[in-house]
Amino acid sequence: MMARIGIIGGSGYVGGELLRLLLLHPNVDVTMVTSRQNAGEYLFNIHPNLRGLTQLKFVPQDISELQKNCDFVFTATPHGGSVNLVSKLLEVGLKVIDMSADFRLKNSADYEIYYGWQHAHPELLREAVYGLPELYREEIKGARLVACPGCMATSAILGLAPIVKAGLVDTDKIIVDLKVGSSGGGSKPTSASHHPERFSGVRPYQVAGHRHIAEVEQELSFLNNGQPVTIGFTPHAVNMVRGILATIHVYPKHKITSKDLWRALRGMYGNEPFVRLVKYPKGLCQFPDPKFVVGTNFCDVGFEIDEHANRFLMFSAIDNMCKGASGQGVQCLNLLMGVDETVGLKSAGFHPM
């Protein structure tokens, strides 16, 4: 039996990427895609890469119609747009995968600090499962509400999780430096994300206090036996459309070797279908590079030891639109449906590109 899928807010980049993946998924049928601004338009008029794949049109948002026509609903709304909507979807028996930040944080007070508004449904924060399968695979399978991580948070957490869990690092001194493609800013450009302003530049932004810090520290603290983890976190806008490279500076608690790091990484990721370990002593691709994960659900993770500065570096590369958003959402959907989590997501990146 095919699972019936609805997408609320399907006209943005995240919605478009969900459609690219779900329209070719063998176990689902996309039945409804909503958009306030584009109701009545063919999906391919907004997402031209979908031409020839579907004749669906955008429709207005209607809870009763979603209840009748869907089993699972993705909410791909701006931050703050899902907080009241999700409770209504759950009330009518739908399972929800939320792509916004509205249910990622367990402490409702963090929404006032990092997002500037008071959370209307703190009871759902306790219920929501953080949608990172590498950490919460079994919990996702039985969830009503999955809160998909932020793209930069995904890259940072997957780069850090094994070494924090293994107790290898000073958890008060972690620096995450990220290079981020322009699609991370969404489909409605600002003066800063407008292509002529971004092209040829490397621009630091939100250099302290970035909102993704909250979910990264939250998840790493859980892995650290509940003890707080503090990170410095600075993204940079760079001249690429898709992709994130996290370069993470960490300081060991005691002397470590490459064998220690390989043991931690293989121990956590040895059987993970979408995490690849990349550390090769020669050639062009010695470390993770976002260019080679574009269009895929892979996260490439690597490392290097800097004995001179008594530190080591972790590298993590993802496609922000796929593993950092919609691909991860589909991976969570597969777990909810009880099918192989790689279904609809098996693809290699492009080379050259």
Task: Walk me through what this model shows.
This protein has 353 residues and is an alpha/beta fold. 31% of the residues lie in helices and 21% in strands. It is built from 12 helices and 13 strands. The strands form 2 sheets. The chain has a 7-stranded mixed β-sheet with strand order 8-9-7-10-13-12-11. It has a 6-stranded parallel β-sheet with strand order 2-1-3-4-6-5, with helices on both faces. Helix 1 links the parallel strand 1 and strand 2. Helix 1 packs across helix 12, helix 7 packs parallel to helix 12 and helix 8 crosses helix 11. It starts with a strand and ends in a 16-residue tail after the last helix. The model has no long low-confidence stretch (mean pLDDT 94).
Question: Which characteristics define this entry?
Answer:
353 residues, alpha/beta, 6-stranded parallel sheet, 13 strands, 21% strand, globular
Summarize the structure.
Helices cover 31% and strands 21% of the residues. The protein contains twelve helices and 13 strands.
Architecture blueprint of SSEs:
Blueprint: E1 3-8, H1 13-22, E2 28-34, H2 43-46, H3 63-69, E3 72-75, H4 85-91, E4 95-98, H5 109-114, H6 122-127, E5 129-130, H7 133-141, E6 145-147, H8 151-165, E7 169-180, H9 195-198, E8 203-204, H10 212-223, E9 231-237, E10 244-252, H11 258-269, E11 275-277, E12 299-306, E13 311-318, H12 322-337
Parallel strand pairs: 1-2, 1-3, 3-4, 4-6, 5-6, 7-9, 11-12
Antiparallel strand pairs: 7-10, 8-9, 10-13, 12-13
Helix pairs in contact: 1-12, 7-12, 8-10, 8-11
